[in-house]
Amino acid sequence: MKKRFFGARRALGIAGAFVLAAMWLTPFLWMLRSSLMDMTQIFQYPLVFVPSPVQWENFPNALTSLPFFDYIRNSFTIVLGCVAGILFSCTLSAYGLSRIAWKGRDAVFYLLMTSIMLPYFATLIPNFVIWSELGLTNTYVPLILPSWFGVGTASVFGGGMFNIFLLRQFFRTIPPELDEAAFVDGAGHMTILLRVIVPLSKPSLICIGLFTFLNTWNDLINPLIYLSKENRYTIQLGLRTFIGMYNAQWHYLMAAALFAILPALLVFLVGQRYFVEGIATSGLKG
Amino acid sequence: MLAHSKRVERRNLRAGLLFSLPALLGFLLFTAGPMIISLVMSFTDYSIAKPVSFVGLKNYVDLFSGQDIFFWNSVKVTLIFALCNVPACLVTAFLIALLLNMKKLPCLPFLRAVFYIPTIIPIIATAMIFMWMMSPDFGLFNYLLELLGLPGSGWIYDASSVLPSLLMMTAWCSGNIMVVFLAALQGIPRSLYEAIEVDGGGQIRKFRHITLPMMTPTIFFNLVMFMVSSLQAFLQAYIMTQGGPLNSTNYLVYYLYRTAFEFMEMGKASALGWVLFVIIASLAGLMFYLSKYWVVYGDER
Question: ipTM of this model?
């Protein structure tokens, strides 16, 4: 009797999970459905669910109305600069903050981590003023350079100094005997970092690289503030402009949205396991 | 021996600082430095166009005295949004994590991806999709309401329904929190549940006496992180509502953005930034203070 009751609850749980998943998929399906319709189908009432005929032309039409491929190239330039910068600066800093014992290290680490609590816009204004005084707005310098000093594009996960937190968390799980042995063999810190720590930390490095990729690719705030010349626009700024231009032409807007989602989706599907591992690490207490 | 250890200590200090240098410089140049500059700026009438002069506390007085007609409303809607958004997203994420944590759930990787993907796509695309589904005349949501025989809603286009509409969207994007919860749930040792089973306890007792207390550190972590980010809501207001309808989404950060980059009043915007900073710091401090009453830290490993 008890057993059967448990079975019923389990069935209910599984059904619940799948019903919720269906609800979560609905926006994607609605986007797909709308991106393949023509204007008359979009504004047909009662609503139709399956596009017929399928309007593949929406994609070329939407994507050639603005130089989206230039925007993508611009986005990639910034993303690559940031990913390289974050990997460089965070590897060095996380090593210094976890594998070397020095006085005041943990206090310095916690001080750095307070930056996660700071409202991003409060620092954005002085940063903007400084960059514009230096004449560097409308270049990619303000967007890329902070990454080379451990400051990632703002976001809840993987932004700001969060990458250092994540990496330090992982470095601390590597047994100290490993670098002590290398140290006795006469290896310096740089050798230990490159030969011992980095090879063991590949999953974590890939994880912060992917996070940085997505956060930078998806970032609207920084490009919005620093880039005003259209030839410098990123894909997100392009989308924002596109919304203004095609206000209410939902079939084009959904085609563009689908196009903007694809790179992020691709990166996620390729690196799925690293994301889940990385976020799980971040939830550990440290 | 003592001299030797002193030397090692000094060498370690030098190496440690050298390796941490990128982050230390980043903190000074892009975080701490700008924070101080913004504090100084908040006492000026700095604007890109004209020469700067110190105005003392004028920016703050203008805000708090009600001279600025938007400020108090902006504080109010920001706090209300955060106070609703945090529980809405945390409860949704926790519920999904509990479901995904069921033993031998079929298609777990697929389900996990479905709930996680909304967090990794550009928020501007998310906003476009929800604006379209919430369209009063040809949107999916009103159509479904009509099928159920319910009256349609103005969704984000109506001051009375804009908050729940935005919460629907943010809850859809709560996959990050869900994954943290799920990882923590999976980390609860089986032996604890078995102890309850031996005592003849059922699912509810397991949940109340094992799952919930074991999850409190993770709930606390998510609570603080998500509170901080909810108080900085910006993109929904910027893309979807432009602060409206009737200023009901004129969140502090959105108002700060407009003050700085549309009205070019950098001094006043810096003051707004500091007000927000104080709000965030005091709420986070309060949470840390209250945490000792409800967060259960088990035996530290």
Answer: 0.88
